Amino acid sequence: MGALNILDTTFRDGAQSPLVETIGTKDSLRCLKLLDELGFHYLEAGFAASNNGDAERIKQARELGLKAKIAAFGWASPETVEQMTALKVPVAVLVAKSRKRDVSISLQRDPKEYLDIVARSVETLAKQGVEVILDAEHGFQAINEDDQPFCLQLLKRCWQAGARWIVLCDTNGKSSAASAANAIRIAAKTVPIEVLGVHFHNDRGRAVSLAETAYQLGVRHIQGVFGGFGERAGNTDLSVLVPNLCQDFGCTDISPETLEKFTAAYRELCEIMNIVPDPCHPWVGRDAFFTKAGIHASGEKRDPGSYMHADPGLVGNKARFGLSDISGRTNLAIKAKEMGIEIPEKEMTELVKKYKDLADSGISFERAEASFYLWILRELDLFKIPLEFSSWKVLDKFLPDQEGDISEATLAMNVGGEDRIADACGAGPVNALEKALRNILCGRFPEADPVKLMGFTLKTMGMQEGSAAVVRILCDFTDGRDSWTTIGADEDFLRAAWQALLDGYCYKLAKIASNKKPAT
Asked: Which domain holds residue 372?
């Protein structure tokens, strides 16, 4: 059997995802360079008949000198042949209807005439030296449900006309493992299995497993999107499929060095496409190898691999251990070590006790790892925050003629031995207080200037206590490169918010200080 042959369709399927915003040519080319480092054979750069943006991307992509072949896609027609020829693409992906009823009803064409048009389109490009990939839309349904003879005739004629790959598409994502395998076996009696490919949509959550089934049957050309983005529920997720094929099905066509780039590539791709990375994304998500269960953490520490399906390092990821209200010695030790802190054994018993006291008071570091990091530093006297809070005053104003409330905050602090006062107005007390804090900090610590509060979440504990219930505030921060979450808890909403706000900026200062320390 031949080597695994991957075609990434980010600029066909991925671009149709409701999560993906339109990105400019510069970022598009950055995306193609990133995908080229992942060992894929083909990269689709755009729709040949689309707007000038796609055409420009295709032209510039050809000049990048990538290892992967640049492909354009379009409908199998004389117009597309002209466009592909003008763009001088090395690879043309032609999409064709594989069901007679679609040809008759949707295109209102004679089926026999349509087969002639598609075959001529393939032949014309192939004779020009263009590598042609024929994507049979609804190919799986055509073979299993609708019009098998017409579909098989399409596949055979396009193969005979010179297509390098004949691809069955599960366009509506409804195939099962049995029906997909049946269609592949039937198609392989018409064209060689060596030229068959598959393109699955994920509407029923089966795209990756169906691609694995196809690979087991001998299919070596697989189309998908790194990250799985696409219209509706997305497409075959190459960031999951490829490691699975390498680990479970004996695929050796993607090198270990390339696999190690997958996690970083997923996060960078999300950043380029303005998508929030899924922390629980299989293999490449930040929390894909995360556990906070005490028995699991302890077991994993004593017997690495007992609770992980694979070594996270295979895809450049790492194991992470979390904290819960019932975390014990093992979880605290592992979590601290993950953050670069070794807890002395003599300190452990007292730390565990203090941790459980904090949990009883409403503080939970389950999501707020930045606050946990600061807490450990403070308890072990590893970092002294150069800030001392003095006082604040917050005044809320409701103005009937203006949308929303206006809050005014006055904050007094001692920064590095110097007393400072700042006033600020904001859309609500938390916003005003954060602006006042920034006014004080950023003049003294310019490295804190990139820090931004992205949002906060309020949770109430002990509802039976009424107005005396504990309020828990989680604040999400970013500096444009990293993101972190802090927590504050108090019976007073604003005091809880202040704890979380201050931790958010102190975390940045603490990380900078730790990076400045000489290596030991």
From this structure: 290-379
For residue range 455-478, list pLDDT tens digits in order: 888 876 554 444 446 788 889 998
DSSP 343: P
The pLDDT value given to residue 516: 57
Q: For residues 221 and 314, state if they share a domain.
A: no
**Domain-embedded: residue 442:** no
Stated as kind and residue range, the H or E segment containing 240 is helix 238-248
Structure confidence at residue 210 (pLDDT): 98
93: three-class secondary structure by DSSP = strand
User: Among residues 445, 452, 450, which one has the least CA distance to residue 386?
Assistant: 445
Q: In this structure, are strands 131-137 and 165-170 parallel, antiparallel, or unpaired?
A: parallel
What confidence score (pLDDT) does residue 72 get?
95
Output the domain CATH number for residue 177.
3.20.20.70
Contact between residue 371 and residue 503 where contact means Cβ atoms under 8 Å apart: yes
Determine phi and psi for 390, rounding to 5 degrees.
-105, -60
pLDDT tens digits, residue range 264-308? 999 999 888 888 788 889 999 988 887 765 544 455 455 555 678
- Is the domain of 139 the same as that of 238? yes
Long-range contacts of 338-344 (CB under 8 A, 24+ apart): 339/369, 339/372, 339/373, 339/376, 340/514, 341/373, 341/376, 341/377, 341/380, 341/382, 343/376, 343/380, 344/380
Mean pLDDT along residues 181-202:
97
Structure tokens given for 141: 């349904």
Query: Which pair of tokens denotes residue 139?
Result: 């190919």
Nearest to 139 by CA among 197, 204, 224: 197
The reply to whether 227 and 344 lie within a common domain is: no
Reported as type and span, the H/E element at residue 154 is helix 148-160
Per the structure, how many domains does the chain have? 2
Whether 45 and 134 share a structural domain: yes
* pLDDT single digits (tens) 28-86: 999 999 999 999 999 999 898 866 678 889 999 999 999 999 999 999 999 999 999 99
